[in-house]
Write a structure and sequence with these properties.
Blueprint (H helix, E strand, L loop, with lengths): L39 H6 L2 H9 L5 H9 L6 H13 L3 H9 L12 H18 L15 H12 L4 H23 L13
Helix pairs in contact: 2-3, 3-4, 4-8, 6-7
Length: 198
């Protein structure tokens, strides 16, 4: 089976160095080195390059980050989140591939049972072989104890998708992740977690 046309393989821990551990996509605030949270007024007034760099921690798409930075100022967080959605919907296939290449797969918690590591490792391998890119899923509305089961259920159900359909699902999951990361980054403005679930 050949890989999809968008990305090269993402390294997963199931090769010769397999230690019985697998990775799952993290909650947004755990997925990367996040910039320090700032209020919206500071986001609006910061230098464009600084804002673009911070936005790349939310979604690794220079096109998306540049668009959000260039359309400042935003009157409120809802306006910024709406702009984030619009920019994410407009990502070209190359932009989506670039965003996926920037996604990381943090380790499962140490107390996760070994069968889960094995199951997720196998599921990730099958997913990447089928679609040619890393699996991403938004888990922000899951209780921490349910995240593992939701990730495994999600990857198994999405393995049956047509590649074109899966690109749509993947783009939607990235859009949700970007919104949640924006909320985390701008939590100095006010708490707005529910908006990321829409």
């Amino acid at each position: 089976m050949t890989r999809g046309p968008t990305l090269s393989a993402h390294r997963l821990p199931y090769a010769s160095d397999f230690t019985g551990r697998a990775d799952i996509p993290a909650f947004p605030e755990q997925s990367r080195s996040a910039p320090a949270p700032i209020p919206l007024r500071d986001f609006n007034s910061a230098p464009a390059e600084q804002v673009r760099e911070a936005l790349l921690a939310c979604l690794h798409s220079p096109h998306w980050a540049r668009r959000l930075a260039d359309h400042r100022p935003y009157p409120d967080l809802d306006s910024l989140l709406a702009a984030s959605d619009e920019a994410a919907y407009d990502l070209a296939p190359a932009d989506l591939a670039e965003a996926l290449a920037g996604e990381s797969l943090p380790q499962l918690p140490d107390d996760a049972y070994s069968a889960a590591h094995t199951a997720l490792s196998a599921a990730h391998a099958a997913y990447e072989a089928r679609f040619g890119h890393v699996f991403v899923i938004y888990l922000g509305d899951s209780a921490p104890g349910e995240a593992l089961d939701r990730a495994l259920e999600g990857i198994r159900s999405r393995l049956t998708n047509d590649p074109d359909d899966e690109r749509v699902v993947t783009a939607d999951q990235l859009r949700h992740l970007a919104k949640q990361r924006l909320i985390t980054y701008l939590r100095g403005a006010h708490s707005h977690t529910a908006a990321a679930r829409q």
